[in-house]
Amino acid sequence: VSFFRVPIHSFDLESTDNNNIIPVMSHIDAPSPTKRYRGGFSSSICASLFEDPHRRKDCCSLACCGVLAGDRSRYLLTNQLPPPLWRRLLVYIALPAGLYVADRIVMRNIREEVIAEECHDAFPDDGSGPFLGAFNSSKIHDDQSLYQDVENASIAHVVLSFSFYLVTLFLLIRAAANRFKFRNQVIAHLKQKSLEESGLNESDDIHTIIEANALLHKNDTRQATKICGFYRSPDDIINHSVQSDDDNILSTDEQNSGDLCTCLWSALSKMFCGICCGCWCQCFGMCATAQEEREIAALVPQEKLLIDYITFQPYKEYFHSQHLLRTEKNGNLIAHIRALSALSSQLMKMSIIFLAALTLYACTNIDHHFTLPNMVLVFATLFQSFFILYFVHWNWHRFDLSLDTVIKCFASGFVFSTSTAIVVEILVSFVVYFVTGLLGVIALVFEVGNLDMSDPQTFIPALIRENAWLGVLAMFLNAFVVAATTEELSKYFGWFMVETPESLDEKDLNDMMEGADYIPSDMDQTGSTEVDPLISPNSRHSTVLYQRGLNSKGVGITVGMVSTALGFSCCENLKYVFSSTDLSTELITLLARSIFPVHALAAALQSIRVCQRDLEGDTNMGLGRVLIPALLLHGCFDFFLMVAPVIISVRHAGDIVGGGDDSTYIDRYNTYLGACDTYNAVDDGIWKPKGKGNRNENVDEVDTMISGISFGLSTLSVIIGCIYYFVQSRKQKQRLDLLESDNRSNII
């Protein structure tokens, strides 16, 4: 019987089973508990995640595998500080990342050596080539020095790869052990509180009961906190209800109610709740970490929970100075920087140090693929995001949201949203590829009997043209599911998990600041002793010391979400820009991605409906309705760009099959030569691409028209998104003004 749901009575030690060292609880006349949970958890381990729109900390259990959330819970419960941030970055990020990057550099050098030799064989300097068959040769090169270099590099690759996986595995096992140890501490504290509430805090058997309980839940706790595990679902939970923080049980009908996204999330979570062999799939203890954050809230005072992550600095230590900047309309940048929290200051310092170190690395020319011009491109990529952020926040709305919150939102988007999106996109891509591959096999089975298979020159192009819809479907799923849905969700939760003083409601904020020494009891936040006629004497010092207008709050939500999106797009731009080793290609990619700030616009569209939910009190505004406008914008923009190459490829399906004719040979020649030019392995003064049959010189007007229409439709989707945002934001401003006017009238 779970000690969380019924009173605990003393154990009957005489009734203990000889084969079980855990005492058996004596019989009590009490109602049977409606729910039992394994592992000492106070509620279902897989439920309630993201179901409460006001529970921000659940999202933190997913970011960085819940490391920061676990640190915060451990600090709140035991006052144990984690290692210094620089040491954790060095051990948990720099060390494995350094091994991985070194291994990638070694592998790239191997590839370049082999390709350079193949290019030399195919395009010899004496002009006797080209010998394109050299690219299809599997023989070991005759050059013994090259073979020795490749062999030495291969040994280095094996050593670095083994070291990377060994270090990563060690760190994961160590983190799992720490989670297991802390989970037992949480169970002990929860048990202690339950015993105290039952009046048994003076019993001599308290420690015995705690140790017995920890032993009882040992296996389930380990499964919930290990790297990957399968946590058994409770035996008596058929419909997985959720126990909220106020001990209310949500019925099955209440859980299933909601919009499309809520129902989809519920269906997805239930795939791992009893259906998958009666187990819940657990990774890196994230569900257990989310549980612990909810349980910690019942074990520590409310005011102690109002702290930052990483630095654990209380909000009230820095919020008052930030609020004074707003009330005094102080636009001095230095003053805003001085008012930053310790966390934001650390983020800025670490960013400056990292960029300085990266600049020194680029100047050394150790890696010829990353030199000083590439570093200039890094600063250009950062400038693009900061330029937009300057106008969105500092130039227009610096007093609606603090610089401190903007920095935290940008960092969350850059680190947490991007990393989460990458992992989820990989998983979702597998599902999409499986679906499209399965449809392709089915289409092939039905088409084989209707096409002439005797001539591959006509069969394969005809098969491609007949199933062009499959390529369009694949691009649709990639645009709307893999890219738009995943990235918009990641950006939303990246903003949602950032909890700052400005995200608190006014009652909690004033309760937090009521006991601050620097707020005189006879003064308001501006230092004035005059009584505002709109503030009642009883509430003047407790509930409205820190008060903002609804429109200011709405603008703050928009700026915060756009800041998160700009952090996400900045990291994504860096990834796409440096996916190529050619500097001109990197520059073109940056310019192309800078023309349309789609991520920022999509975040602004989300903010409209978030304000409807949080400020206007629209209870029907669920997560799905919040995301729909952003999904349509993002999905249409990507889909129109993705589908054009598919249509062009279908038009040239006949070029895929090589028939040995002169045109196909020249196409192969130019393809191989272009690849060799990338590695500077061919003398450009001797070998030039031939013009005959080169499609790049004989541009197809239809292909150009298709590309132009695709770009135009993507541009049109952005224009429609901008118009929709400005129209809706204007309407929302009028609604918020009306609400605020009604509130002031009611106060008077």
Describe the fold and architecture.
The structure is a single chain. By secondary structure, the protein is an all-alpha fold. Helices cover 63% and strands 2% of the residues. It contains 23 helices and 4 strands. It has a two-stranded antiparallel sheet with strand order 1-4. Residues 1-34, 138-147, 235-257, 517-544 and 690-697 have low confidence and may be disordered.
Highlighted features:
two-stranded antiparallel sheet, two-stranded antiparallel ribbon, mainly alpha, disordered N terminus, 748 residues
Helix content: 55-70%
As laid out across the biggest beta sheet, the strand order is 1-4
Element pattern in H and E: HHHHHHEEEHHEHHHHHHHHHHHHHHH
As a whole number of angstroms, the C-alpha radius of gyration is: 31 Å
Can you count the helices?
23
**What share of residues are in beta strands?**
under 5%
Q: Detail the poorly predicted runs.
A: 1-34, 138-147, 235-257, 517-544, 690-697
| Through-space gap between termini | 55 Å
Total strands: the figure is: 4
Q: Profile the largest sheet.
A: 2 strands, antiparallel
User: If you average the pLDDT, what whole number results?
Assistant: 75
Which term fits the overall shape? Answer: globular
Structural class: mainly alpha
